[in-house]
Amino acid sequence: MTAIKNEILVLGIGNILMNDEGVGIHVVSTLEKEGYAGADLMDGGTGGFHLLGFIQSYKTVILVDAALDDFPAGHIRVLHPRYAKDFPRQLSAHEIGLKDLIDAAFMLGNMPEIHLLAVSIKDFQEMGMDLTPEIEQAIPGAVNQVKELVSLLKNEAVT
Q1: Partners of 63 in the β-ladder
Q2: For the chain, counts of helices (H) and of strands (E)
Q3: 3 state SS of 105
Q4: Of all helices (H) and strands (E), which one includes residue 143?
Q5: Three-class secondary structure of residue 108 per DSSP
Q6: Would you say the C-alpha torsion 54, 59, 65, 70 has a positive or negative sign?
Q7: What pTM was computed for the model?
């Protein structure tokens, strides 16, 4: 576990071995390569309960994940889920683990403020490490969206 430096965690979720399903990891990796220091960054893999204690140590968590939804591939949206039912109906290949993680944090009474940056994908069944052109083109927009959200959250905390 890395040392906590910020009140905000950007947690990339996904499986880079399943092409576009790993978009959350690619976004966090891009932020790391840029040397972004506005928030703590973490590759959360495919999620799961091992992340529970870690996310509970933050005031705010920005989850970046792929979503299978009705939007075109590469569409980016920010959601503010409070309970598992508030997430998109299908969050890629690890839907149950991530939703259960959020419910567990809520039930334990130590729930950080959650923001979900969902990047729409078409398919997650295919194995491989290559992003489709639509998702590759969406990465810079998702990175900028994370930066804007972190900036907004920090400004709100000051006022």
Answers
A1: 11, 116
A2: 4, 5
A3: helix
A4: helix 133-158
A5: coil
A6: positive
A7: 0.87
The domain spanning residue 49 has which CATH number? 3.40.50.1450
* Residue 155: both structure tokens together: 């400004």
With beta carbons less than 8 A apart as the criterion, state whether 28 and 150 touch.
no
* Tens digits of residue pLDDT in 40-72: 999 988 777 778 888 888 999 999 999 888 899
For residue 69, which of 49, 43, 95 has the smallest C-alpha distance?
A: 95
3-state secondary structure at position 109 = coil
69 vs 30: CA distance, rounded Å: 24
Token digits for 38?
């506005």
Residue 19 burial (C-beta neighbours within 10 Å; 0-12, 13-18, 19+): buried
* The token pair that represents 44 in the structure block: 């959360």
Per the structure, the complete domain to which residue 143 belongs is given by 8-158
Tell me the two tokens of residue 4.
Answer: 């906590």
Could you tell me which residue, 94 or 157, shows the higher pLDDT? Answer: 157
What does the pLDDT look like over 14-24, one tens digit per residue? 888 889 999 99
What letter does residue 94 receive in the DSSP assignment? G
What is the count of structural domains for the chain?
1
